[in-house]
Amino acid sequence: MAKKPKLSFWQIWNLSFGFLGVQAGFALQNANVSRILSNYGADLHHLSFFWLVAPIMGLIIQPWVGAASDRTWTRMGRRKPFIFGGAIAASLGMFFMPNSHIAIAILPPVIFGAIMLALMDASFNVTFQPFRSLVADMTPDEQTNTGYSIQTLLINLGAVIGSFLPFVLTNLLGVGNTAPEGQVPPSVVWSFYIGGSILLISVLWTVFTTKEYNPDEFKQYNQSDSVVVEAEKKSFWQTLTSMPGIMGKLAIVQFFSWFALFAMWVYTTPAVAQHIWGTAIGDSTSPEYNEAANWVGVLFGLYSVFAAIFAIFLDKIANRLGRVKTYSISLLFGALGYLSMYIFTGQYALILSMVGVGIAWAAILAMPYAILARSLPADRMGVYMGIFNITVVVPQIVSGLLLGTILKFVFNEKAIYMIVLAGLSMLLASASAILFVKEKKA
Fold first, then answer.
1. Cα→Cα distances 101→28, 41, 108, 117, Å
2. CB atoms < 10 A from the CB of 208, how many?
3. Cα distance between residue 30 and residue 224, in whole Å
4. 31-77, pLDDT tens digit by residue?
5. pTM of the shown model
6. In sequence order, what E strands does 124-268 have?
7. Burial degree of 370 (CB within 10 A; 0-12, 13-18, 19+)
8. What pLDDT is stored for residue 225 in this prediction?
9. What is the mean pLDDT of residues 394-416?
10. Which residues contact 304 (CB under 8 A, 6 or more apart)?
């Protein structure tokens, strides 16, 4: 088996550049969907049910996309057709999401918002997995850490752009930040337009600058013909039951870390509005609430800034300490970041909390996939990466089903305690990484 050629920095950069735009759109969704759905009339403790759309779409779509992209060989490439098609659909969802008036004659605004959320999430999921597999396909083992670190850097640069857009449009360009009940503020509407455009342009960059290996080259660098043919004959169930044990151990860590992330995405806006701005429970239209919502966008952008900075050093840290230890320590920083949000009472102090969250986010985006890339068969990389996404979506589904009830009956709708719960869950993730995950040596 021939060794994969080493790639230049810019070749690795181009592999993942489209992820910058995809993540810009995803960040806009994460920071603003609770706000948009509240504007459309969704009640606070029902928000987590709407957010279930994202993990359900991931559960359905990513394993299928992974398996399909493993078997796809076109003139465009192996992974790129899925990346490009998903980007087009995601952009359409972003253009329509904040415009419920388009369908108000036939659908209530909150239902229209939920449908657009489903379209965006389905489309994001079509792009996520092929991007991760593309790095594993193209990089030799000694550049795998570098490949995923650069991907993490680009993901977080995109998240910074998406998270900051409403704040920048409101405070620097004077775009309106409030709207009547049932409508979305202009700053959010224009943010989604700009984010959708960035998504398309960046994905086109990857599509036109990256040349994937053709089938003969891929077999030369990864498997003999007979092994590839045998692997392609495996059913999905056989693939699932024969997956490497490392995937199950990482699933434990993934459960606690993604449970925490889901709680953060759903409840940070009401948590900050109540805890820092002193808004009433259920408020979603006051100037104070909208100011808090914009600040949450800034905070989400900042944790992406810190994640992007950390990603620059992540490769060297992981090479020195090992991927698993780096993963565990990073998750510990994330837990401390969440827990500190309860202690702090000023909006600017929350920036310090985001340092810890950003460190954890960078590791979550890179380390599990870098650990897996060394353990998975190259000819089934796509389907196994798709199956691994189950470890991302199951904790979010559990969160979505439980958190609204916990908020209402345990925490009396005080959303800051949901962030504390996220911190405790991230602590368990950090401990699980050290206890259960053992890294395969090169």
1. 20, 14, 9, 16
2. 10
3. 43
4. 788 778 877 777 766 777 777 776 777 777 767 777 777 777 788 88
5. 0.72
6. none
7. buried
8. 42
9. 91
10. 27, 155, 156, 157, 158, 159, 160, 163, 358, 361
